Amino acid sequence: MDEFSPTKINQWKTLDKDLGRIALLESASAAIARPRVAIGIAVVFILVCGFAAAAFVGAGPGTLTIVVAAAFGAYMALNIGANDVANNMGPAVGANALTMSGALAIAAVFETAGSLIAGGDVVSTISGGIVAPSAVAGPGVFVWAMMAALIASSVWLNLATWLGAPVSTSHAIVGGVMGSGIAAAGFAAVQWGTLGQIAASWVISPVMGGAIAAVFLAFINRYIKDAPDKLAAARLWVPVLIGLMAGSFTAYLAMKGLRKVVDVSLAQALLLGLAAGVAVWLVFLPVVRWQATGMHNRKRDLKQLFGLPLIVSAALLSFAHGANDVANAVGPLAAIVHAVTSMDAGDKVAIPLWVMAIGAFGISFGLLLFGPRLIRLVGQEITKLNQMRAYCVALSAAITVIAASGLGLPVSSTHVALGGVFGVGFFREWEEERRARALNLRKGKPVAADERKRRKLVRRAHVLGIAAAWVVTVPLTALLSAAIFRAILFLV
Description:
Layout: H1 6-57, H2 63-83, H3 86-94, H4 100-118, E1 122-124, H5 138-163, H6 169-185, H7 192-225, H8 230-257, H9 266-292, H10 299-302, H11 307-342, E2 348-350, H12 353-370, H13 372-381, H14 387-407, H15 413-443, H16 449-454, H17 460-491
Antiparallel strand pairs: 1-2
Helix pairs in contact: 1-2, 1-12, 2-5, 2-11, 2-12, 3-4, 3-11, 3-13, 3-14, 4-11, 4-12, 5-6, 5-11, 5-17, 6-11, 6-17, 7-14, 7-15, 8-9, 8-11, 8-14, 11-12, 11-14, 14-15
């Protein structure tokens, strides 16, 4: 009987409260510890890269400079992984075709493979002709200009990730090189025509990506989702769409991702894409028929047919991103290594394998440690995605890059992918509004303003915030790079 006394009961209640406080404290400590562990691992990676650079270069008068540059190159790669890769994996995660852990694993493997297998082996020392090499006064000044560009672009990517804004890595690098180049050689050294093309891409990339994604979503809605016999329509059109995706990605990888392995023209890439598209279409005709067996004639079942193609497209986008963008990311580091070891600031610089490895593994570490936040934002917080909509975004990214390359237009893969997400969301808004008006017109009443407001399917705050980050990337990194360059010259 004593164990049920009021005193014992009060003691148990007190013990439960204490245990609850301890559990709350443990969960809070775990939440605090996770980001600290990630930051700790990132710091260790940066230090390892610095020591590895010293081992590869060997003792010499410029070794310390290369070690510092390698550390900042690793920091840059970590930030690219945290920020830029979200555009490839976000739609697949948002559509529930991939779990977060699955997306991180696939992206890490394919980004690394793309970087090391098909990464560019030559890069312009001034990131695509932004600043004339002859205008920079000697290799010493050139090294500090590249160091300032590397630091500035890394810091901005870190800040953008913290703010939740996916931005273009290439634009950050371009802004950094431009700013330090102006500080080193004046405004006349800048190739303003190239800068004009980059500014134009702020509009071209998202508009093209959004328009193409919206067109494909409209096609799927009309000819598959809204068809009386949805399964028959799916058996006809889904293999065609999968073949189109295969052909687009084959051409995309041949033209953009495999330059180191094989050099192909646009016409050759399109022919390869056509052959791959026809082959995949023929293969998937029976596969889709088999998948559709036993399905019901409803929209929910149709989404399952797009799951596997969406996963494959996300993996291919990651491979192409690793092959195409890592060279730009580690370009300043490669330029510094070349200038210090050869005392020359030439137009073209070969990227050593160890420099590419820093970029490849740094992107993977950055993605695993810090990438989930922006993956969720791109895939879940801008607009609601399912397998069909996310498929349209991925297909739009490949087709837009191919079309822009054929027309000679500069595009950013980041802007294209996000433009596809925006395009899908705004098209759904327009379609919902059109259907509501048609329904209310039959009922003889207008659409109420509050009802129209509830149908906003794209979060305007994210759109405006991301667009603002895009616009300020080049000027902000340019100003920061110029300031860092002046500070370096003052200190050395």
